[in-house]
Amino acid sequence: MTTNIAIDGPAGAGKSTIAKRLAAELSFIYVDTGAMYRAMALYLIRQGIPAEDTAKIEEACQSADITISYENGEQQVLLNGENVTGFLRSEEVGNMASASAPHRKVREKLTALQKKLASEEDVVMDGRDIGSQVLPEAEVKIYLTASVKTRALRRYHQLEEKGLDPSLEEIEKDIKKRDDQDKNREISPLIQAEDAVLVDSSEMTIDQVVQRILDIYKKRENGLR
Fold it and tell me: Which of 44, 113, 165, 178 is most open to solvent, judged by the fewest CB atoms within 10 Å of its CB?
């Protein structure tokens, strides 16, 4: 029997960073759902399907098998048995991922693949609808959030480190807009699952957040014994 940890939350809350650390601490597989959507996008591009052709996208996506494995501690994304990790970060793939991800059939297909992976491996999975839609039976569900100001400052410092001159005010506006879109989208909106534990990382370090979730996991694990 596998153990699943679902982490949901708004953009910039640190979900991926925390999920990767947790997976490493527990020797679980970290499931990068965004990489899976990029692999689907790559498949559609290889099929020669334009981003605006909804019917062909929804038909073709059914033939894609996407999963995640690890080699030497590094995540590998497999598309119909081929390791496509090195092809996923191009602008073309990113644009197709943005265009294809909202399609109901694409989400249904990838949700099914993510459920299958979670039924076969111990996983930590993060996203917007993991606890509510993808892994509703997960043993541990976390809703990881932080204030808009905190998330904006984190993004601001990230951009500064890249040598850019960002506007904190504009970043805050973008985050508020993204939050509104995520919470009000028609398919799989961002919500806190009823049985998810709220973790606000606004005043916490990465180490503190990881330890907090590990404590929740251990308490849950002991309760099942």
Answer: 165
> What confidence tier does 91 reach under pLDDT thresholds 50, 70, 90?
confident
Angle between helices 15-26 and 206-224 (to 10 degrees): 50
Domain hosting 220: range is 1-28+123-225
Note whether 109 and 15 are same-domain residues.
Answer: no
Instruction: Output the domain CATH number for residue 60.
Output: 3.40.50.300
d(CA 193, CA 14): 18
Q: Is 78 exposed, middle or buried (0-12, 13-18, 19+ CB in 10 A)?
A: middle
Cβ pair 125, 115 in contact under 8 A: no
Question: How far is 34 from 98, CA to CA, in rounded Å?
Answer: 10
Strand partners, 141: 6
Whether the CB-CB separation of 110 and 103 falls below 8 Å is answered with no
**14 and 94 fall within a common domain:** no
As to burial, measured by CB atoms within 10 angstroms (0-12 exposed, 13-18 middle, 19+ buried), residue 55 is exposed
Query: Rounded to two decimals, what is the model's pTM?
Result: 0.84
Count the neighbouring beta carbons within 10 Å of the beta carbon of residue 29: 20
In a 3-state reduction of DSSP, which class is residue 145?
Answer: strand
